[in-house]
Design brief:
Blueprint: H1 16-43, E1 51-52, E2 58-65, E3 71-74, E4 82-87, E5 104-114, E6 117-127, E7 140-153, H2 154-160, H3 170-178, E8 183-187, E9 198-202, E10 219-229, E11 232-237, E12 242-244
Parallel strand pairs: 4-6, 9-11
Antiparallel strand pairs: 1-5, 2-3, 2-5, 3-4, 5-6, 7-8, 7-10, 8-9, 10-11, 10-12
Length: 245
């Protein structure tokens, strides 16, 4: 054995049967990986119809209200009277000069829309030269309800991110909630639908504080009241009536 030469056949030609086997196995792996990718893509849940066209600037007129989240009540976008929530370009709310609230205003920016829900990443807010104050009308109390679903940050869910719900979105949702962006609520199995969300508020109809942040993007059960204002439904609940599942 000690006298045998040590040889590695680096330049040796692969036998034809082995070469055919390797080619067939390689082609099979490529085809299998492609089929697996297509299958996983088809099985993934739909992110829903939300969209944010950042290349299209629009101007919308109406009346600005600072509560529960800063929004413009308008009739310019179809679906009749509806609120358009006003936010910054990032994960932050905007501050509107008091002189521009409760009166006619024109807001420019880019729209984030999902079905009848709308939000605007604001570039500028100006007094409307021909104001006609738009009023929300009375609240309509639709009674008590027990709902299971997910607390969403409305900006991402409306269309800023796809998908804008679920565990993979939890960190982003927490940052948006910390920045003061509107929160919404969607019932289990309806996160991808266009009309499923309810504005999520505390029992007094105000925005929740930072105590709610750990619960965003988690499955929860809520016991509260459903209220409709300007065509948008809200779910109002005490913090202690929101239970992680």
């Amino acid at each position: 054995m000690a006298e045998d030469p040590f040889f590695v056949g680096w330049n040796a030609e692969m036998p034809k049967p082995t070469r055919r086997q390797m080619l067939v196995a390689g082609a099979g792996l490529v085809a299998g990986a492609g089929a697996l990718g297509l299958g996983l893509g088809a099985a993934a849940p739909s992110p829903g119809p939300g969209a944010w066209d950042q290349g299209k600037k629009v101007a919308v007129t109406g009346t600005i209200y600072p509560e529960p989240y800063t929004h413009l009540l308008t009739e310019d976008l179809g679906y009749g009277l509806r609120p358009v929530f006003l936010v910054g370009a990032g994960k932050d709310r905007i501050n509107v000069r008091p002189a521009l609230t409760f009166t006619g205003a024109a807001v420019t920016g880019t729209l984030i829309e999902r079905g009848e829900h709308a939000m605007m990443a604001v570039d500028g807010i100006y007094p409307d030269p021909a104001p006609g104050r738009v009023r929300a009308g009375p609240e309509v109390d639709l009674g008590e309800a027990v709902l299971t679903g997910e607390i969403l940050d409305a900006k991402c869910w409306f269309g800023a991110m796809r998908p804008g719900h679920g565990k993979t979105h939890k960190a982003c949702a927490a940052l948006c909630a910390r920045g003061g962006l509107p929160l919404a609520f969607a019932e289990t199995g309806r996160c991808a639908e266009g009309k499923a969300a309810l504005l999520f508020l505390n029992a007094r109809g105000k925005a929740f504080g930072p105590e709610i942040i750990p619960l965003v993007a988690d499955p929860v059960m809520i016991r509260g009241r459903i209220v409709e204002v300007a065509g948008l439904r809200q779910v109002r609940a005490k913090f202690e009536d929101v239970v992680r599942l």
